[in-house]
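Researcher: Can you fold this with iron/sulfur cluster in place?
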Amino acid sequence: MAAVTPVTLYFSLLQYFGPQKWWPVDKKYHEKNSTDPRFEIIVGAVLTQNTAWKNVEKALENLRSNNALTITSIAKMDIDRLSDMIKPSGYFNQKAFRLKKLSLYLQDRYNGDLNRFFNRETVDIRNELLSLSGVGPETADSILLYAGGHPIFVVDAYTRRICSRLPITVDGKTYDDIRQCFERDIQRRFPTEKLVSIYGELHALIVVFGKTFCKKKPVCRNCPMNSTCIYREKEVFSF
Ligand code: SF4
């Protein structure tokens, strides 16, 4: 059985699902309102914690329809009103607090200028994001990759599950062990200027793959990876 690596996984999933072109933002809205689409990604990365994306979309729509999808608006908004707008995303009081803190931080420290915030070393921005309330590695790296265009791979629960089933060999079990394993393999195969788009596409492909096939209860029969999956083999032999 051929080994699965992040690179072979990327090619297999890309062939099966096609490009996902993440992160989904409402470009027309931002063009029309001269607002910064990167902030929508930042907000989306916080709102998507512990909830499905369709719930995030409803919350983002509420923010858009109230002209509240900017750093300034959220920084000055009453916290109860913000909670109300983002209610569909769940954990809304906690998330409202996080969004407000993050917006105030960007406003006070960077004058609300995302170019100033993002035009720095990846590691410095990452450490700063991780020091903020409610921003863990997955949220920080989603912001860095999709909003900031920094070459960093995002690890989520689907990535962990897929690694344990296919398997993809990872030295260690921490978030950063898995992230670095993916980054090392991809860096060996692709030039530096391609890393942001490959990391972004692979994470999106893993999400769609995890939702379609490699669920908690996997749908192995038609899975595009089933010829290389150890877990699937166990399932077959256990019947
Ligand atoms: S064969 Fe089943 S367990 Fe293996 S990757 Fe596919 S869906 Fe997941």
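Model: Folded with iron/sulfur cluster in place. The mean pLDDT is 95.
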